[in-house]
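Re: beginner question about structure tokens

> Can someone show what the tokenized structure looks like for a real chain? I only ever see the sequence side.

Sure, here's an example I had lying around. Input first:
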Amino acid sequence: MRLSTVILPSRRWHDGGRDAWLRAERLGFHAAYTYDHLSWRSFRDGPWFGAIPTLTAAAAATGRIRLGTLVTSPNFRHPVTLAKELISLDDISGGRFTLGIGAGGNGFDATALGQEAWTPRERADRLAEFVPLLDRLLTEESVTYEGRFYAADEARNIPGCVQRPRLPFAVAATGPRGMRLAARHGQAWVTTGDPKLFASGMPEESREALLGQLDKLGKACADAGRDAAELDKILLTGFTPDRPLESFDAFVDFAGRHFELGFTEIVIHAPIADSVFAADEKVFERIATEALAQLR
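And the corresponding structure tokens:
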């Protein structure tokens, strides 16, 4: 059982940003992730910094905690340039980096480069090409590729990742095509639950939906000739009908029920006042330092 956190890149590094990552390490979280967006929902008109530079600074400031994205998408990334940045970040962190990767959505990332937002099918098509190519770019010294959406011409990534054969992928997926990518290329699978249940669903309905997703993952792994137990199962909280940060006891109950479902890592957002992620800082810190002991 692992407990991790998300730190949104919404504070200047020398005005609380650095302290947030140091606190996450001090509190004993397994990993600290950040969103890889150009901006996000209600934070669009406020400060928002780039994920890769932020994680690079966090890698230099910390020494033990794992770092990662939840999640990177093809919406504004190209696998060739991304691979170079990831190899550099994996090196600077001493092999502590995990790439969360998914198809992306219809948010600001989808149109910021001046293009029309892709349909869900188009996003899935691109991810299906993006992930295998990125896998090759992170494991081979030179890659030449010509695909429908992406190309590489003798793209070199020497000396490769510190982590071998490459840094781990945590694939965010709920549909069959994404599940197949997780089964074939992932070291972990990520979900936020069923978005249809967030506003008006019940916690028990959410858990039933998550069980269905886990079952689909198991079938995708079986089809790929892989044991689903090899993959970590990561639940990013904040998008289900549950309210796990309302109190320490609420979190312990929430975490216990979801670990029983088969999840191996639960991720909670570091509180941000006056936002959708507002929460009691004392409750957050107590969860970080005491919750897992209650569950073992």
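Each token stands for a local structural state, so reading them left to right follows the chain. The mean pLDDT is 97.
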